[in-house]
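Consider the tokenized backbone below.
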């Protein structure tokens, strides 16, 4: 095993509202020196345009503009590239975070459909026993949503809903975003200073 390789994480961004969460997580991982394998669904690209004004006509160029020179490297994988490196369990990554995670993607992961790279990469995390974190962003939730979350949780998937906290008296939307990203980093066992902890 190559102990000199730079650690990397897979980050997925779906079409659920809250694309800033996935963007901020990617920024944080890169600044901390990790490499990021980034998957964005077609609906995710649309939400990035609607919420953050990203122009998706040249996807590689916009990603270079947004994430270049941050420390780690971004490796973008189109959602249809089922032959990408991260589609194989023999390719080593630390784990995967889907943030935000739509209910459609959550269902695909729960049922092992693997019909695109997002679902396949998540399936690889499950079969290899690697860290998989989902950040569901939907409300209200019905029984099928909850059943799928329960099924995945029982398989060891960490479910971190996009629920803000207010005990640290957030002063901006950035504070709220950073809190959730910080909770994800906590569960990846990655140190950060994104929010003030209770008792500090």
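A designed sequence for it:
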């Amino acid at each position: 095993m190559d102990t000199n390789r730079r650690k990397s994480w897979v980050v997925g961004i779906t079409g659920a509202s809250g694309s800033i969460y996935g963007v901020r997580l990617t920024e944080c991982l890169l600044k901390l020196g990790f490499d990021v394998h980034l998957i964005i669904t077609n609906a995710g690209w649309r939400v990035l345009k609607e919420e953050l004004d990203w122009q998706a006509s040249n996807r590689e160029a916009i990603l270079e503009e947004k994430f270049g020179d941050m420390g780690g490297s971004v490796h973008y994988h189109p959602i249809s590239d089922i032959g990408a490196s991260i589609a194989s369990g023999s390719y080593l990554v630390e784990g995967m975070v889907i943030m935000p995670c739509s209910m459609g993607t959550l269902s695909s992961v729960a049922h092992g459909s693997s019909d695109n790279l997002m679902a396949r990469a998540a399936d690889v995390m499950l079969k290899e026993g690697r860290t998989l974190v989902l950040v569901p962003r939907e409300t209200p939730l019905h029984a099928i949503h909850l059943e799928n979350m329960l099924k995945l949780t029982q398989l060891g998937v960490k479910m971190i809903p996009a629920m803000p906290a207010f005990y640290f008296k957030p002063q901006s939307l950035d504070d709220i975003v950073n809190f959730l990203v910080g909770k994800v980093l906590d569960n990846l066992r990655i140190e950060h200073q994104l929010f003030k902890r209770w008792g500090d």
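The chain has a mean pLDDT of 95.
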